[in-house]
Amino acid sequence: MSTDTSDRRLLLRPVHWLETKSEAVFAYILLAPAFLLLAVIAFFPLVQTFRFSLLADETAAANPFGGFVGFENYAALLTGEALIPQQFLDPTFETPLLQQALFVTLAFAILSVLFETLIGFGQALVIDQEFYGRRWVRVAIIIPYAIPIVIQAMIFFLMFNPTVGFATDFMQALGIFGQNPLATPRDSFIIVLVADIWKTAAFMALLILAGLQSVDRGLYDVAKVSGASPWQQFKYITLPLVAPALLVAMLFRTMDAMRIYGLIDATAGCQTVPSMSCLVITALQETRRWATGSSVAFLTAVVIAIVVLIYLFGLRDTEAGVT
Amino acid sequence: MSGEEQHPDLEAQERAGQEEPELDRGIVEAWAARAISNPDRAYKATFYLATFFFLVTTLFPFYWLLMVALTPRGNLSDVGVLTPAGFNPGAFVEIFTRLPFHRYMFNSFLIATVATVLVLFVASLAGYVFGRLRFRGRNALLLSVLVTSFFPPAAFFIPLNRLFNTNIDALRPILSAGSLYNTPYAIFIPLSALYLPLSIFILMTFYSQIPDGLEDAARVEGTTRLGALFRVIVPLSAPGVATAGVLTFITVYNEYFFSSLMTDGRPQNWAPMLEGVLRFQGEFEVLFNLMAAASIVAVLPVAILVIVAQEKIVSGLTAGAVKE
After folding, report:
1. Fewest CB within a 10 Å sphere: which of A90, A153, A317, B9?
2. In CATH, which superfamily holds the domain spanning A97-315?
3. ipTM of the shown complex
4. CA-to-CA distance for A123 and B199, rounded, in angstroms?
């Protein structure tokens, strides 16, 4: 019994030691595991990525990094001299690769967020209503959001596969797609876009739904008494009150859309639709240019940061006040 | 608008109701006429049409995937839009015999479970601190957590890839190869860190809503501060903890970037489910029906989780996002 209590006391010693500390010290100690994890996985690698990006590529030696070259990798990327495998987006090989990737990434982010917002808004309006079977409609609408990326990719890969899928025939009949869409950059881009909209409109719907449910229902009663049509109610009550939630949701989606990698990798492949994240992996795996890859990775982070800042600048005037 | 005066639209409606002549109309025309005289009907119809449209667009891909999975391999070029070309449920058995797909699934489950437990523990401590304690530097630290979620995983990948491929002698006793590449650690450690911020924000919201009195009471009873956290605050915030757990599990299970890059893709090297699904594409020939069958099997766990924990996902995402 006595050994038992002494063991217990030994075990509890750190806990009691914690008790003697002030609230601030206690707070820092409890935060230590979280920040240790974030430091090892995020902060430290980010600094390392930047440091690597200033080094030379060493494609043959055991160590993939050479000497310090300053911003030469960035200069090479921006002028299009970087030696990453050429992509098919511009068959004339004249557009610098980074510009292609930048174009793909930004075009994807803008188009996907635009469509997802519109469709997500529609879905949110539907699941905001009270009706019989609402729970199951809600489950059905949010299910794509919870689908693994690889399965989302598989569904659309199969649908647009010329052998199995029916969608290619349909799109060809409309005159939109060419022979083998999963090998053509423009067609593949559309496929990736559709797949992304299918999955993530649900995410937008969920965030917009939160905004809708915070709207005071009494306002609609007032509007009805004043004879406002449902469209007028939407335009003058719903939209202005949901706008802050909508903008925050769009910010999240934009950040996420600019990271696109998995969906492309598992459908058309990184060579066909080169996004910025794709370029990092291509530089690493195909040519072993780690330093160039690091520069692309850091540039990706910079581009995302710029977009976020633009958003925050726009949000500053609204009441959303992202803290 | 004065209250007594009737709105012109309503007047028009009433008049239309009274003066509607008995005409011989077709179904569509009659419906249209009623919709014009009573706009609510039109709105209601739009609503049902929209609901139907969203249900079809979200659910049809799964239905069609099942049709592909049920089609025998020889008939794959004849899969219809609504019907399979033949009937061969054997594909659902074949995915486990041709490749150890169950092993891939197990790996994914293990990685997602361990990451969830780790995230919940670490985020509980951090969420408690951010939600309930006042101390110097709180906002700066909270901002740095938020900033982490801004960066793309690609920006962390190269140094991490290098780190995980380094042989660390200290790890030899636990890992035969001495490096973290091809181990579950190489996947769940980065993913835990990347999805930590969302859980911190969710738990912070829930923990901050527990009345101070309850914590004080526990402290007066003689519990330590940590004891009060795990015996009072965490149990009282059970819905929040469940929400954070469900969301972390789903996101880790679904993740692609690190999951596809941190192993060589072999099941004995802890490759997750996504490698299994993609393997049917390359190993021998392109086995479309097996890819579809494997996708359906792999989607079941998350689909069930969504059906069971729908409310949690909705509330968690909105709470986390609104807070951020």
Report:
1. A317
2. MetI-like (1.10.3720.10)
3. 0.86
4. 26
